[in-house]
Specification:
Blueprint (H helix, E strand, L loop, with lengths): L24 E7 L5 H15 L3 H21 L4 E8 L2 E8 L20 H9 L2 E7 L1 H4 L3 E9 L10 H7 L1
Length: 170
């Protein structure tokens, strides 16, 4: 009878070495259109960043990833995914979904003070860089979009967020 190797090495036998801090890595989480998905994405992101010693980025990354995941769950009809990619000193978080429609920034909405678009304003205020692109269904089989943001270590805010930012998050 053939047995599968034990995924957790027994005591005394070394497992794989941890990836050094400055080495690149990537994780991906796929999630269905479910109201619990943004919380699961936040929890996953915080666990990955904590495990890799990037807790200084966790709070900002969690807020922005939650906004993007919530947009995907609320405004699309299909599944989505979140990808975390570290290339020292930059963390890129991208959320892809099946809708080709980009969220409209608050400033571009009629009146500019509606319930929608705050996530885009948060991206502008908190991320070191951000952007997005449409996914061509002819190339990938499924259309949609990817919205991403980047955070750099050592570039986080040293003071509490300004009142305008606190009001957007509320």
């Amino acid at each position: 009878m053939k047995t599968e190797p034990d995924p957790i090495p027994p005591e005394g036998r070394p497992g794989p070495a941890a990836i050094p801090y400055a080495q690149p890595w990537e994780y991906e989480l796929h999630f269905p259109r479910d109201p619990r998905a943004p919380r699961i994405a936040r929890t996953t992101l915080r666990a990955v960043l904590g495990s890799h010693g990037l807790t200084e980025l966790a709070e900002r990354a969690e807020l922005l990833a939650s906004e993007l995941a919530t947009n995907s769950v609320r405004h699309t009809q299909g599944p989505a995914s979140m990808r975390l990619r570290w290339t020292h000193p930059v963390l890129r978080v991208s959320v892809s979904d099946t809708s080709p429609v980009f969220p409209m920034p608050l400033a571009q909405q009629p009146g500019g003070s509606g319930e929608w678009g705050r996530g885009m304003a948060l991206l502008e205020l908190i991320a070191d860089d951000w952007g997005g692109c449409c996914l061509d269904e002819r190339l990938f089989g499924v259309g949609g979009k990817t919205v991403w943001f980047e955070l750099r270590t050592g570039s986080g805010p040293d003071t509490p967020p300004p009142p305008a930012l606190a009001a957007l998050a509320a």
